[in-house]
Amino acid sequence: MKKRFLKFRSISIAFAALTLVVGCSGDDDSLNEPTDNADRWITVAAARMGTNPGDGNGGTLIYSLSKEDAQDPSISIEPFDNGFIVPSNRTARLQASEDGSTIFNISYAGDTGGNYTKYTVNGGQDFVQTGTEISIAPYVGTAPRWIKLFDGDQTGCAVYVSTEHEVEDNGTPNDATDDTYLRTEATVGIVTLDLQDSRILNFQEISVPLSSQEEANGYYFSRVDMPTLNAAGDKLYIGGRLSKIDPQTLDRDSGYEILGSKTIVLDYPSLSNPQVITSSVGTGNTNGYRSINAFEYNGSVYQANQGDPNGSHILKIGPNNQYDDSYVFSLDQALGVTGSYILAWRPAANGKAVVAYRHDGSQDGVAGAQGYFALVDLNAKTATKIDQIPYEPDFYLFQYQGFAVDGNDIYLTQAPVGKDGNIYVIDTESGQVTKGAQLINVPGSHFIGAW
After folding, report:
1. DSSP-assigned letter for residue 394
2. β pairing state of 446-450 and 84-86
3. Of residues 188 and 93, which shows the higher confidence score?
4. What is the four-CA torsion angle of 395, 396, 397, 402, rounded to 10 degrees?
5. Could you give the strand order of the β-sheet that contains 446-450, starting from the edge strand earlier in sequence?
6. What domain of life (predicted)?
7. Contact 297, 319 (CB under 8 A)
8. What is the C-alpha end-to-end distance of the chain, expressed in Å?
9. pLDDT (tens digit, 9 = 90+) per residue, 79-95?
10. Is residue 177 domain-resident?
11. Where are the alpha helices (DSSP H) in 217-343?
């Protein structure tokens, strides 16, 4: 008998943030967020329809306005008609500097896919490319999704996973049904990028195994995303999604037991010594989607999970780089709903956050399930739906990417697919909600955040 490999190269690629400042102690969490900036720009991103309403595949446009104008409901902006077209074949993966003065972009798919560029924000549709352009496609392919580091806008990190199913060939020609499944090898690639000098800092590929029992049962990491630094700056956390193969048939399994939420922990900056930690509080995925999924606050990292049969939780990883299972924060319980699913979220420096979510009973709109916003307190483990924001079935937040943080204020966009909406400003300390500038939409398109 001999071992053979069933190779699957459907690589899951994501460019993600190492969130919140490296090398700071956890005593002053305010160091990890931008301070209130009187001259701050607020940049809004608009995703144009491609084939279907809400798919965002027609390209991305951005438009910036002063924070005073962003708070003024008498102001209206038309990013789809007057915005700056961000180089990207489909929905761009955008980030902004901590003070909002610079936009960073990696083109997604197409001839320019994987190209990194940055732009100085001058207001309106005036974005001026600065610095050197570099392609990261040799490391992460032409369709990377990415989020920058919060280390003074210096660094980004890309991660991907490739998998190979290992089986024992029992010698029957042309008959795979006699083969014995052994395990699935998950190889995670990590690359760090200097955002200022446009150069690759480090690239490593590492094997990330699960427990022998989990692997024998067919589980493996099928997607990784959202790297985050711990408070000490010496460990990198990478969120992950598990999939499962049926060991008997070698087909992809479905309806299987969802395991405890897992995170890959690496030494940083060497990107070595992988370990896997598992939550006893939440189950499901920790890789998020298009928005940052984990944030360092007050010495610990707080991480959302998705696909949890008991609804999304915010999980806590302590300074010892292990899950703190004494911290139990169920969004279902806090909001009094079932089947909550955190789509995107962002805390301010005070530990209070805005969460975009859906839940069981969300109406089906033209693009998918209806979304909502809630104000969350990480310390009190409470959540309150933000009722001052209007909701309707076509308010679609699955592709939501960014929140602009200015001190304790969080800026967000609200507009149903194909309909006008507004910028809203949430004072996370007082809970006050300010209706701001009007967002003029076009048929089939939607807004994906503020930076």
Report:
1. T
2. unpaired
3. 188
4. -80
5. 84-86, 60-66, 41-47, 446-450
6. Bacteria
7. no
8. 57
9. 999 999 998 878 888 88
10. yes
11. 331-335
Residue 224 CB-density burial (10 A; 0-12 exposed, 13-18 middle, 19+ buried)? buried
Q: Which of 217, 229, 231, 330 is nearest to 284 (CA)?
A: 330
The count of domains in the chain is 1
Contacts of 445 (CB under 8 A, 6+ apart): 46, 47, 48, 49, 53, 54, 56, 58, 80, 417, 418
Residue keyed to tokens 């290992």 = 166
Q: Identify whether the C-beta of residue 331 lies closer than 8 Å to the C-beta of residue 355.
A: yes
Give the whole-angstrom CA distance, residue 447 versus residue 1.
Answer: 56
On the question of pLDDT at 202 being above 50, the answer is yes
CA–CA separation, 157 vs 355, rounded Å? 24
**Per-residue tokens: 437:** 């500038």
Strand 294-297 versus strand 60-66 pairing type: unpaired
CA 215 to mean position of chain CA atoms: 27
Q: Please state the length of the chain.
A: 451
pLDDT value for 427: 98
Q: What is the rounded distance in angstroms from the CA atom of residue 381 to the CA atom of residue 355?
A: 13
Residue 262 lies in a domain: yes
Cβ–Cβ under 8 Å, residues 157 and 193: yes
**pLDDT given at position 305:** 98
pLDDT tens, residue by residue, 214-273 = 999 999 999 999 999 899 989 999 999 999 999 999 999 999 999 999 999 999 999 999
**Cα–Cα distance, 261 to 305 (Å, whole number):** 7
Q: Which domain holds residue 184?
A: 1-22+152-288
Residue 250 lies in a domain: yes
Per-residue pLDDT of 274-312, as tens digits, reads 999 999 999 999 999 989 999 999 999 999 999 999 999
The C-alpha atoms of residue 300 and residue 131 are separated, in whole angstroms, by 34
> What does the block give as tokens for 403?
């929140």
Question: For residues 97-136, b (16+ Cβ closer than 10 Å) or e, as one string?
Answer: bbebbbbbbbbbbeebbbbbbbbebeeebebeeebeebeb
Paired tokens of 440:
């003029």
Q: Distance between CA 64 and CA 97 in Å, rounded?
A: 13
Answer whether residue 144 shows pLDDT above 80: no
Query: Which helix (H) or strand (E) covers residue 345, if one does?
Result: strand 341-347
Residue 195: CB atoms within 10 A of its CB come to 23
Q: Has residue 98 been placed in a domain?
A: no
- Tokens representing residue 335 in the block: 């909001």
Q: Can you read off the two tokens belonging to residue 32? A: 């990890």
Q: In the structure encoding, which two tokens stand for residue 279, read together?
A: 């939550």
